[in-house]
Write a structure and sequence with these properties.
This protein folds into 3 domains: 2-122 and 164-179, HUPs (Rossmann fold, 3-Layer(aba) Sandwich), CATH 3.40.50.620; 211-264, SH3 type barrels (Roll), CATH 2.30.30; 276-348, Translation factors (Elongation Factor Tu (Ef-tu), domain 3). It has 9 helices and 17 strands. It has a 6-stranded antiparallel barrel with strand order 12-15-14-13-16-17. Helix 1 (11-22) crosses helix 8 and helix 4 packs antiparallel against helix 5 (95-112). 28% of the residues lie in helices and 28% in strands. The protein has helices at residues 11-22, 37-43, 47-62, 72-88, 95-112, 147-150, 155-160, 170-179, 201-209, and strands spanning 2-6, 26-33, 65-70, 118-120, 125-130, 133-138, 161-162, 214-218, 224-228, 250-255, 260-264, 276-284, 293-297, 305-311, 317-321, 333-338, 341-348. A hairpin with a 4-residue loop joins strand 10 and strand 11 (260-264). The chain is of the alpha/beta class. The two termini are 42 Å apart. The model has no long low-confidence stretch (mean pLDDT 90).
């Protein structure tokens, strides 16, 4: 096939590229420039340069053509603006999910899909096509599996998607990278949000939204226990960074109108039940399936909770979990699974 391979400089996408070359495909590697000039000026360094150096080294070793394409405007319009809008509303956004839907398989798809048979990435996920329907399945590595981040892809996008490392575990991939002696075989995995590089999320928020001091209020008593620099720096369930002695303290809720942050030391007591939420914009990957019993992921990671889905109206539904989850927060994505098949997602409202 004629394949566009989106490469980041990390070992995952580099192994994916190597596998495609070994399989005899015609491959063009693409490095998407989505780093933000303002953030880099604020940070004082250019973390993307190291990424690009590794990308060039890998492509030279494999004799693969490399194209560096700027997607900064599209990234700002489709991902960063969404992120800031959600934060201002007091919600918890997921820019990585939006990056996959709106940029890697969105803006890039719109510009290049007609030129290639497939768009490949280094995600830990698998696709299968039966008849005219594409399905998204988990990778065999439950910790690294990235179907949660791909759950907003539509059929058109998924049919063009290719995940060459989707059947590998991370340990198998590292062994492969060392065996074929890739230049980044020992490079550490990147952490954090895709467009921030080495910039902390709190620094990104402060850079764009500044500070808005408010009260830290004990949830049970209503007593003001301290001050904070902005409610948008906190998310429900958060324990770190509250800055009060006598804890541990947890964030229970936020009020963006008064900028109050409500905290509690009794977060896990039985009276604070968190086993139910409503989702909006329910989106099915491979056709609507109105069963009631699914496994649910509320965040990236191996944990999947059995749940019952009660359908409401206009792509809204209620999720009733079989156990408590103390980190449910508006704006997060809930992703539904049937076994290892990723079937739908919605935004917690």
């Amino acid at each position: 096939m004629n394949i566009a391979m989106l490469i980041s400089g990390g070992v995952d996408s580099s192994v994916a590229l190597h596998k495609l070359v070994q399989q005899g495909h015609s491959v063009t590697a693409f490095y998407l420039k989505i780093w933000l000039e303002d953030e880099l000026a604020f940070l004082g360094t250019c973390p993307w340069q190291e990424d690009l150096a590794y990308v060039r080294a890998v492509c030279e070793k494999l004799a693969v053509k490399l194209e560096v394409v700027s997607f900064q405007k599209q990234y700002w319009d489709r991902v960063v603006s969404y992120t800031l809008s959600e934060i201002k509303k007091g919600r918890t956004p997921n820019p990585d999910i939006m990056c996959n839907q709106q940029v890697k398989f969105g803006a890039f798809y719109e510009l290049f899909a007609d030129q290639f048979d497939a768009i490949a990435t280094g995600h830990y996920a698998q696709t299968y096509t039966l008849g005219d329907v594409a399905y998204l399945h988990q990778s065999p590595d439950p910790v690294k599996d990235q179907t949660y981040f791909l759950a907003r892809l539509c059929q058109q996008q998924l049919k063009k998607a290719l995940f060459p490392i989707g059947n590998m575990t991370k340990s198998e991939l590292r062994e492969y990278a060392h065996r074929v002696d890739l230049p980044n075989k020992a490079r550490k995995d990147s952490q954090g949000i895709c467009f921030l590089g080495k910039l902390k999320f709190s620094e990104f928020v402060q850079f764009h939204l500044g500070e808005h001091p408010g009260d830290l209020i004990e949830f049970e008593s209503g007593s003001i226990l301290g001050k904070h620099k902005g409610a948008w720096f906190f998310t429900v369930g958060q324990r770190q960074g509250i800055g009060l002695a006598g804890g541990p303290w947890y964030v229970v809720s936020k009020d963006l109108k008064t900028h109050a942050v409500y905290i509690s030391k009794k977060y896990y007591e039985p009276d604070k039940r968190r086993d139910t939420c409503e989702i909006e914009d329910l989106s099915w990957i491979s056709g609507e399936n109105r069963q009631q019993n699914f496994l649910v992921k509320l965040r990236h990671g191996p944990k999947m909770i059995p749940a019952t889905i009660n359908y409401l109206f206009a792509n809204r539904a209620q999720i009733v979990l079989s156990e408590q989850d103390q980190g449910i927060a508006a704006g997060q994505f809930a992703v539904l699974y049937e076994g290892d098949r990723c079937v739908a997602s919605g935004i917690i409202s």
